[in-house]
Design brief:
- By secondary structure, the protein is of the alpha+beta class.
- The chain contains ten helices and 33 strands.
- The chain folds into three domains: 261 residues, Alpha/Beta hydrolase fold, catalytic domain (Rossmann fold, 3-Layer(aba) Sandwich); 167 residues, no CATH class; 186 residues, Galactose-binding domain-like (Jelly Rolls, Sandwich).
- Helices cover 15% and strands 38% of the residues.
């Protein structure tokens, strides 16, 4: 179907601010619309990906609109925070504007991955009249429990990493070809970019800040059908089954083997994302009776052991389906912890756990799909050697897990603050340990994420860790391992002091979601990725990446990564963009106070005589009382790199019970 592309148009809000939009229109008259609403720059940031999606959707008869959030890309205004009231209020206005256009038939759907997956659900929660369906990829239903900031009340190092990335992203200027006031606007962006990493870090409990935008606060508020998709290599695995289990409207969950990318451009096992999306919107935006509501409630790729490495590579497994979720095919099987293994019944004894701080070096990048490569979890055997492990006997029959395992345990500690990290692993007869699922818990949160409390050394407590969703089949002869540690670096920021956690085994058990399907139903698995258009950008510098682990003379374990995302010229408007990032993690195995993260981003933009460059530096370190955050910005323009602004910021945030 022929389509028309409008490179830029303006959506004027009630207060006069204008949001920039790119539009793809089918030449068939009024059509339903698909909105993607992001802070990642339609002009260059997501342009390569947009070419692979919105072009295809427009050819299928949809008006597609890609809008820059206020203060980002080419949009006017000032960015304030992720999923802020301003962002969501503006989003409602954008949906109303789209529905009122003569090229739209009044029906609007939303699509997005990560940020766009989040705000699609959040806008559905607010019930704008024209929003009729959502496709949400790699998102969350609980911003405190399942985002990039905290996990189980533990601080994720990606809080500062992501804050550093957004700091670099938000300093980029609007395109002079679209904004005559680009330079004044750029200076305002440079001066007023929020110190997000520090702002987020101040909200250390599940307070009203995190409840805002968490749709689990009221499941009934979602009244539009939802297709929820993610991948097992992604960080965001818990939302699709939660949505399928809790929403009253038509909801379908799909989890494949993919990383943090749309499935058709996955580097692991690309799949036909387009047909899934078009089928969903055809049903709920066009009213076609195509059976989308009759698909299984939950389709998942049941993984098996595949000798894991940090590099992108093929997965091993098969697609399965459950017509209902929760499923009667999944039963709770209780394995009691015993010294070094499991037993059928509770037994006496205790196990003390004290881990070196660098346990977790095989954990991979928290959200795989953000780097170029070298980001997946590898063989867990080295981390297992530094953890307290409970191993099953070699399995006499295959064992399938589908859902969230739950560790219930009684413990005592020797410090007022401590953490425990649980990993389920599939260990092959050759000793290769593949991570199935994991989860951390700040033990001060044993009772509540809203009102944590300091622990009394020597006192006994009871707690639970509900591990992340999984779908995994252990083959005959393999061993199921539960590995427990008091640290998990660099994913989890360590506790303030070394700690010993003692498990009292009489009251410790792992509850496994064991799947026993007597008859498999048709999985309706996504087929291979179809051919899709690719942005014909001119590559001026090829992407490259490296990852290096070393031990410094003082004993600190270091992880250094570098990603050069290359340099390209856009064929539509000749903008040349280049970027790269260095990251550095360091910690001494014996001292959690040595934990440090550093990163440096750089961006260059040019077209003809216009040139600008931005470099940012960020770091975070700590002691037992505080976190110390620092950032620096330098912006230049012209071939001679005339300085526009250099500025530094420092923040100290008390640790509280982190």
């Amino acid at each position: 179907m022929p389509i028309e592309t409008i490179e830029n148009t303006w959506i004027t809000l009630a207060d006069g601010r204008r949001l920039a939009a790119r539009i793809w229109l089918p030449e068939t008259g009024p059509a339903p619309a698909i909105l993607e609403y992001l802070p990642y720059r339609k002009r260059d940031g997501t342009a390569p990906r947009d070419e692979t999606t919105h072009t295809v959707f427009a050819e299928a008869g949809y008006a597609c609109i890609r809008v820059d959030i206020a203060g980002t890309g080419d949009s006017e205004g000032q960015f304030d925070d992720e999923y802020s009231e301003q962002e969501l209020r503006d989003g409602e206005a954008v949906i109303a504007w789209i529905a009122a256009q003569d090229w739209c038939d009044g029906h609007v759907g939303m699509i997005g991955i990560s940020w766009g997956g989040f705000n699609g659900l959040q806008l559905a929660f607010r019930q704008p009249p024209a929003l009729k369906a959502v496709v949400s990829v790699a998102s969350t239903v609980d911003r405190y429990a399942d985002d990039i900031h905290f996990m189980g009340g533990c601080l994720l190092s990606d809080n500062v990493n992501w804050g550093s990335q957004m700091f670099a992203y938000l300093t980029r200027p609007a395109d002079p070809d679209l904004r005559a006031d680009w330079r004044q606007d750029w200076l305002e962006r440079l001066q007023n970019t929020p110190f997000s990493a520090a702002d987020w870090l101040r909200h250390q409990t599940r307070d009203p800040y995190w409840k805002h935008g968490s749709i689990c606060e009221d499941w009934s508020a979602i009244q539009t059908p939802v297709l929820a998709i993610t991948g097992w290599a992604d960080a965001y695995v818990n939302a699709p089954p939660a949505l399928a289990a809790n929403l009253a409207v038509p909801t379908k969950a799909v989890i494949g083997p993919w990383e943090h990318r749309y499935p058709h451009i996955s580097k692991l096992d690309p799949a036909d994302f387009h047909s899934e999306v078009i089928g969903w919107f055809d049903r709920w935006l066009k009213g076609q009776q195509n059976g989308a509501e009759d698909l299984p409630a939950y389709r998942a790729y049941m993984q098996e052991h595949f000798n894991p490495t940090p590099q992108n590579g093929p997965r091993k497994g098969r697609w399965i389906a459950e017509s209902r979720w929760p499923s009667p095919n999944v039963l709770d099987q209780v394995w009691h912890l015993a010294p070094g293994g499991f037993s059928q019944n509770p037994g006496p004894g205790s196990v003390g756990i004290t881990s070196p701080c660098h346990v977790g070096m095989e954990s991979g990048y928290f959200c795989a799909g953000m780097r170029i490569d070298n980001e997946l979890a590898g063989d867990q055997a080295n981390d297992d050697d530094l953890s307290a492990c409970f191993d099953s006997a070699p399995l006499q029959d295959p064992l399938e897990l589908l859902g969230r395992a739950k560790l219930k345990f009684q413990f005592s500690v020797d410090q007022p603050a401590a953490q425990l990290v649980a990993r389920l692993c599939d260990v092959s007869p050759e000793g290769v340990s593949q991570r199935i699922s994991y989860r951390s818990l700040n033990l001060c949160h044993y009772r509540s994420h809203e009102t944590p409390e300091a622990l009394q050394p020597g006192e006994n407590y009871e707690a639970e860790i509900t591990l992340n969703e999984c779908a995994h089949r252990l083959r005959e002869g393999h061993v199921l391992r539960l590995a427990l540690s008091t640290s998990y670096w660099p994913i989890v920021w360590p506790s303030p002091r070394p700690s010993k956690v003692t498990l009292h085994l009489q009251d410790c058990a792992i509850h496994l979601p064991v799947r026993e399907a007597t008859k498999e139903i048709q999985a309706s698995e996504p087929g291979p990725a179809q051919v899709y258009p690719v942005l014909a950008a001119e590559q001026l510098r090829a992407p490259s990446a490296l990852s290096e682990r070393t031990v410094a003379e003082d004993g600190r374990v270091l992880l250094k990564t570098y990603d050069d995302y290359g340099k390209t010229r856009d064929p539509y408007h000749d903008l040349i963009v280049g970027s790269d990032v260095h990251m550095h993690y360091g910690i001494h195995p014996d001292d959690p106070a040595t934990a440090q993260f550093e990163t440096a981003w750089s961006f260059t933009f040019e077209r003809g005589d216009w040139q600008v460059a931005i470099s940012t530096e960020c770091r975070m370190n700590c002691d037992a009382q505080n976190f110390y955050l620092y950032r620096k910005l330098r912006a230049t323009e012209g071939a001679d790199e005339t300085e526009v602004l250099t500025k530094e910021w420092s923040k100290t945030v008390p640790r509280g019970l982190l």
